[in-house]
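note to self: dont lose this again. the chain is below, predicted strucutre after it. 242 aa total, dont forget to put it in the shared folder this time
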Amino acid sequence: MIKLLRQFHRLWYLFWIVFFFALFYPLYYITSRNEKYYGILNVCRKLNSFLCSCFSGVFFSFSYEEKLDHNQTYIYCANHSSNLDIMVFCIMGHGKYHFMGKDELLNNPVLGIFFKTIDISVNRDSKISAFRAFKKAGENLEKGMSLVIFPEGKIDVHYPPKLGEFKNGPFRLAIDKNIPLVPVSITNIWKINWDDGTQYGSKPGICDIYVHKPIITTGLVANDADILKEQVFKLIDSKLVK
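---
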């Protein structure tokens, strides 16, 4: 019975995603055509995500170790265990920010419009694609657009999920562009909805997110990227529900 209810909730949740995306689509189409409207686009993403959250009964509780400066450009690094992780940052984000994600999202019926415009897609099996993606991300950071990235590069196949090995890209980028890096622990979201919910369904509940204080990269050099990566890994892992 519980499995049936969880699958019903998943369908209920997907209904509201599709409904509100269709409602916001004209605004998304207009604001994604020009970079100067990206701030408005992200306000729409925030409102869209908030409405989906309310109607599906999935809520997000944020704990900040230190108040973030909304005028500062950051690179946000988080663990990845659910499709809901994107919604987390749409609600949390401010101003101009963008995501980096796998190139399969270009064909996603909901996310495709964003990964063809404001967000960046990358084929992680291609060094050329990764180079181009991080080059574009660096250019966006210089324009004041914060970057949201999941350094594991994918959702772990284990259930319950384990924090996977991090890619080097975001840490090298943070050092190269001298951008503060914010580790984010999305602690228990997998209990609400793991991956896309197909296997275990989903349920209403509260997802806890712990936002660590920014790590300043001033003074770091390229050779410090591995140390920075390990530091961020340990911080994120320290708050996850096992």
